[in-house]
Specification:
The chain has about 300 residues and is mainly α. The protein is built from twelve helices and no strands. The chain has helices at about 10-60, 60-65, 80-115, 115-130, 135-150, 160-185, 190-195, 200-215, 215-230, 235-240, 255-265, 275-305.
């Protein structure tokens, strides 16, 4: 005899049962994932604070923030973080000078000028840059960019801030370009058509209508890219050097906060020593800088945010 086939009613009940179970489990799973990310962030902050406390018991916060010298590994120790902060800001500013104009220019082109076929080719090619390992960028800066720049600036040292800034700017360029283009593409076409109806040219529509309308997303992309530049490690470790200077000379070697953390984390420094604890103090300072930048970006984005119905 042939086995009885499941009835349609049984299939519906089984489907509803699976769907109901999924609807019951998914909120709990998503809640757990969200809680895990919060716990991870809180854990990082707690570790930075507790380990930095041991450092600040030996070194005053005033000296840490005001001393212009950073020589924790020398016999005459100085623990002023300003040279590392200055080096980090030099890289971030130099990278921004490279990435922001090029990124926003390419975003305007892709959003307002490029045909769909060109956009579908160019945008993925730009995003490929974001997938290149940063250590490859570092070797590129050291072996290609620095020799080229030396033909222009004879006083340029092998390890310098200029080469590192340019290559970090190339690295963060796709982030600004892609996110800004997405923000500009989300502006309703009706706004563009209204501007054209008033006699505006394509350039005027792009710069005076679409760009201001997408300003919130553009600012978010720029701040996110700058934060990425501040936290960059391998490029500055290989190309910028390890000499903490406070002279703001892009032709000389500098050291950033992340590069110093890499230097101390190699294992040559005794665990628990004051030299070892400096990495947590520097990490805490880096965390505060990026946190303040994100808060500021949140405020600015909210200030210029446009809602379209």
């Amino acid at each position: 005899m042939l086995a009885n086939k499941p009835t349609t009613k049984n299939n519906i009940v089984s489907y509803k049962g699976r769907t109901g179970l999924l609807e019951l489990l998914m909120p709990k799973l998503l809640w757990f994932v969200s809680l895990l990310s919060i716990i991870t962030t809180v854990g990082i902050v707690i570790i930075l604070l507790t380990e930095s406390y041991g450092f600040f018991k030996a070194v005053s916060i005033v000296e840490f923030l005001t001393n212009p010298k950073w020589t924790p590994m020398f016999s005459s120790q100085n623990f002023g973080v300003m040279p590392l902060v200055a080096g980090t800001m030099m890289i971030a500013i130099g990278a921004s000078v490279v990435a922001v104009p090029l990124g926003l220019g390419s975003a305007i082109y892709l959003s307002e000028y490029a045909p769909s076929r060109v956009r579908n080719i160019v945008k993925p090619m730009l995003e490929i840059l974001a997938g290149i390992p940063t250590i490859v960028y570092g070797f590129f800066a050291l072996s290609v960019v620095t020799p080229f720049l030396k033909t222009i600036f004879p006083d340029l040292t092998l390890f310098n801030a200029l080469s590192a800034s340019i290559v970090v700017g190339i690295m963060i360029l796709p982030m600004i370009s892609s996110l800004s283009e997405d923000a500009m593409s989300s502006v309703p076409k009706s706004i563009r058509h209204a501007a054209y109806a008033l006699g505006s040219t394509k350039f005027e529509v792009a710069v005076k209508v679409v760009f201001p309308s997408a300003l919130s997303g553009i600012i978010a992309s720029v701040v996110l890219a700058i934060s990425r530049a501040i936290g960059e490690t391998m490029i500055v470790t290989l190309a910028a050097g390890s000499l903490p200077n406070l002279d703001f000379n892009y032709l000389q070697s500098i050291q950033t906060m992340t590069a110093y953390i890499v230097q101390i984390s190699k294992g040559d420094t005794p665990h628990g020593s004051i030299e070892y604890l400096t990495i947590f103090a520097v990490g805490l300072a880096l965390f505060v800088i990026t946190f303040v930048m994100n808060i500021l970006a949140k405020y600015i984005s909210g200030r210029f945010k446009e809602d379209y119905q």
